[in-house]
Structure formats: C-alpha cells, structure tokens
Fold each of these.
Amino acid sequence: ETGVTQTPRHLVMGMTNKKSLKCEQHLGHNAMYWYKQSAKKPLELMFVYSLEERVENNSVPSRFSPECPNSSHLFLHLHTLQPEDSALYLCASSQEGFSSYNEQFFGPGTRLTVL
Amino acid sequence: AQSVSQHNHHVILSEAASLELGCNYSYGGTVNLFWYVQYPGQHLQLLLKYFSGDPLVKGIKGFEAEFIKSKFSFNLRKPSVQWSDTAEYFCAVISSASKIIFGSGTRLSIRP
C-alpha cells in the first residue's frame, strides 16, 4: 500500500476511555505530523516528529500523547478526552528540510467523537 | 507571530465562472507556498506549490496561483470552474523560521 494510512477511520469513545490512533507512511519520509481539523477553524498542528524525535508540541493538552517508534509509524494515545476534542485527526508525512522536498502528504484522517 | 489569512470563508459560484481565492501570509523572509484541496469525503491533497522561479505556478485540474512577493500573496485562480471543483481549499506556508502553517480554508460551492 502506498501513501499515508490511518486507522481507525472512525472512533467513538467515552470520556473515561483510553484509545490510540495509528498512522503509517509508506513514502520513505523522515518527518510525521498530527493535526486536528475542527469545523471552521484552521488546521491545528499538534505534534511534529523529525527523525523519530519530537521537535514541536504546540501546547497540546497532556490527554493527547504521541509516540513515534520509527520513521514509518506514528501513534496518538488518547485518554480522558473531552467532548470538545471531537474532530478529524489527520496524520501527514514529509521529507524534512527547507527544500523542495517538504511537501506534506496527508492520510484520510480519523473522525473522533467523544461522548 | 506568523500567520496565513484566507479572507473568503465560503465562495459560491456557477459553473464556468472564474475563480480567485485569496491567500496572504505574514513573513518577510523566504517562503514555500502551497495550496491543498479537500474534496468531500476525501483526504487533503496537494493542488500546487511554489518554491522558486516563475511566480506563476500551474497545478492540477487547471488551477494556477501567482506569488506576489510585494503583496505577501499567493492567490489561487481557475478561469472556468466545474461542479467537481466543489471542495475546501487551504493555503499553507513554510518559512525558514517555522513549520508549515495553514490558513483556515475556503469552502467552494459550485452551482450546476
């Protein structure tokens, strides 16, 4: 399979549950990203991993915990979420560096609903 | 703080009308510029990009964008839209000082 894949595509969870989102990229990129897409808001960059190290955390609440075990996989662990965390969570990857290779490729997203 | 502004939140056009979506950014240095499109039910995909050279960039599906450095703008254009262009369009900027920053998006609706 090519590109960026995300599982699950849809997730409904209660506020006390613990769940994880998974992202996998098959493009040989060295950077991966988590974004939150809410209605009528700009895409919010949550986390950036470059060469498997976290390089940016845009003040995301601790109930979101990322994990990047290798350059092809990225997880977002969720616990004690709030209803306002309901959104589409997008994963992306790119070849790191301020050059012509840093176009981002996006996965289809996980539609998360917190009850 | 650096930012990307898309002033048109929702644009409604009839088929065959011409399209121009505005994008302005706030950063004085070297930038890479992108337009992404998200069709209904599909994931974000790259429409076109500018890194250097000719400021008029051609993308897929007949879209083009012009980088005007003096205006900090990268407007998206298409001379004649089709119903299948109904989508949400996002402008994005990467600078040497920051990771990618996206605009809030413009929803384009085309009347058949």
Amino acid sequence: AQTVTQSQPEMSVQEAETVTLSCTYDTSESNYYLFWYKQPPSRQMILVIRQEAYKQQNATENRFSVNFQKAAKSFSLKISDSQLGDTAMYFCASTPGGGTSYGKLTFGQGTILTVHP
Amino acid sequence: DTGVSQDPRHKITKRGQNVTFRCDPISEHNRLYWYRQTLGQGPEFLTYFQNEAQLEKSRLLSDRFSAERPKGSFSTLEIQRTEQGDSAMYLCASSLVSGQGDYGYTFGSGTRLTVV
C-alpha cells in the first residue's frame, strides 16, 4: 500500500515570489509515478506535473518544478513567479508502476495555497 | 472530445433515497476511476474500471454503492439508501494506462451530493 503525506495544510505567497509545497510518500514498489494536481476553488482538478521514479532528472513544466529525493521519499513542488491564478488546493499523489494497483492514485491531504497581490 | 463529463453537477436527496451519477470519460482512455472527496480532504478511491471490467473496489465501500461501465464507455455510480455521511463530491477521472507509462488522470468537474 502507498501513503502520501502533505504536512502543510495552508501556505501563502506574494505574487511573483517563489513557494515550495512539501510532500512525502511511502511505498514498497521499486517503480512508481508521482504527481502534483491543482484544484482551484469550485473548479475541476488538473494535472500540474508528473515524475517517474526511475528517472533521476527532476520534472519541470514552465514555472512548476519538483525536487524529487528518492532516498528520502520526498517530492516537493516549487512554483516560481507565483501568479494569482495559482491560488488553489494542491494535491500530491502516487501510483505504483505495475501490478494490480498500477494507475490507481493515492492522494495526500492537500495544501491550500493562496497567492496575494 | 471535450474531456470528462459528469452529470448531474449537484444533487440534493433525502436520506434513504437512491441516487445515480453518470460519467463520460475521454473516449481514447481505457481506465475510468471513481473517487469521493469531502471538504478540505484529498480524494478517496472508490473503484475503477479497465474497459468494461471493474478491477478493484475499495474495502471502505459499503454494499450500498455499485458502479457499472457497460460496453466500456460511460459509467454510472449508484448509491442506495443514502445516508448523511454520503454527502461529498464524487469525482470521476479517466486515464490511458499502457506498458509505456501512466500519464495521469483527467478529472471531471464532479457531482456534489447533499443528503438531507
């Protein structure tokens, strides 16, 4: 079984600044995938970034990047040049890379991020 | 294809009534998932299908919950004899899972159920 923990219930940042959201996970799988999802207020959840565990290189998507520390089982999300539209709840999630639960996501509790003008 | 569609968006029902939700996934996706999300929490897995086969159902799910995906297209989630504890957002998602990797879910907008 996989577990995902987000220890920051709420974070805030000024517009144009950088913020980092934390996530730790636990898994017995040798291969797995990690994701960050964004859920804006009253809007649907969308995928922000994806990381394959067997890849050493940290994933990046425009202003979003991750710091993947496999040994520490840590997967933090860095948002650079924060924008008002980044205000949302952010979820870290993981899935095994094979087996019967391949593709089934386990989510963390979420972090509410507020970007202030 | 405009993404994952869920219907209805909102449902208010009296305790003890049955409700049914529908999800239309992205047509190219082979997996369909149902999750439940309560306010301020992360989504909790309910069940998922690969094509028309239901591959896993959460042990937390009581027998009052049932899901179908006839012909591997749309899916329905039915809750019988609703209870106030069933009040939540019910999320549907689809994905394309293959030997080449998992590229994440596309979520629908959800169905918000309120049991009064």
